[in-house]
Design goal:
Elements lengths: L9 E5 L4 H12 L3 E6 L2 H11 L13 E4 L5 H15 L5 E4 L14 H28 L4 E6 L3 H4 L5 H21 L4 E8 L12 H9 L9 H12 L10 E4 L4
Parallel strand pairs: 1-2, 1-4, 2-3, 4-5, 5-6, 6-7
Helix pairs in contact: 1-2, 1-8, 3-4, 4-6
């Protein structure tokens, strides 16, 4: 049996097929959690479990890791997932990581309504639906929990070509603070992480010239590694942060 700061916990990670979500699965499983890797791309989630999670071929204290297909913008998809997890693990996850996110960048004057709606559906509404569904399950089971929402440093400062993405991530911050106030009485903590520029598939789409400018404005002078975000996710998921709720944590290299 693995001992670690989240040993024996069941953790749901959305957007687990790549980037920060995949890294969160790696670190949470290393620290003893049983991980449910959820992603719209089931094969990518399965690869996370098979190749990137500790004890992938065995189990941690709660049971085997699992991969699931999930559309976070669909309440039906989310409620079906909860029912499946209740059957499989006999309890809801007590760690919920909202890492699913998309971007559809364009200048504001050219941004289509569809691209605006889709980004908010996944990044903001998806985070809301996951929080609402799983926090309700925790309260009904009288279980404490920790929810960690992935926002972005652009929510604070804005960025050209990302008005939809920036709005969605700023919304996540406000929603995190409100949820923390509502859920505190149930001993469910809710916090947000604001990553800077991280070496993920999403960052790979940023033009070189723009990226060089970002790195000049980052005192540590490099992209972050997804694992560096995942370490903070795991801290906020654990009892090491037992008096932290409603907080936003910048992990940006000083950007």
């Amino acid at each position: 049996m693995v001992s670690g700061i989240v040993s024996g916990r069941l953790a749901l990670v959305t957007g687990a097929g790549s980037g920060i979500g995949r890294a969160a699965c790696q670190v949470l499983s290393r620290e003893g959690a049983t991980v449910i890797a959820a992603d719209k791309d089931y094969e990518a989630a399965l690869e996370t479990i098979k190749k990137h999670s500790a004890l992938a071929s065995g189990s941690n204290a709660v049971g085997d890791h699992s991969a699931v297909e999930l559309d976070v913008s669909s309440s039906k998809s989310i409620s079906e997932l909860l029912s499946k997890l209740q059957r499989q693990y006999k309890a809801p996850p007590t760690i919920i990581i909202n890492s699913a996110g998309i971007s559809r960048d364009n200048w504001m004057l050219k941004l289509s309504e569809d691209d605006f709606d889709r980004v908010l559906d996944v990044n903001l509404k998806g985070t809301f639906l996951i929080m609402q569904t799983f926090a309700k399950a925790l309260t009904e089971a009288s279980l404490p929990g920790s929810i960690v929402n992935i926002s972005s440093i652009v929510a604070k400062y804005g960025n050209i070509g990302t008005s939809n993405y920036t709005a969605s991530k700023a919304g996540v911050i406000g929603m995190t603070k409100s949820a923390a106030k509502e859920l505190g009485k149930f001993n469910i903590r809710v916090n947000a992480i604001l990553p800077g520029y991280i070496d993920t598939p999403m960052a790979a789409t940023i033009p070189d010239k723009v990226m060089k400018n970002f790195l000049k404005r980052t005192p540590l002078g490099r992209l972050g590694d997804p694992i560096e975000i995942a370490e903070v996710i795991t801290f906020l998921s654990s009892d090491k942060s037992s008096f932290v709720t409603g907080a936003t944590v910048d992990v940006t290299g000083g950007f």
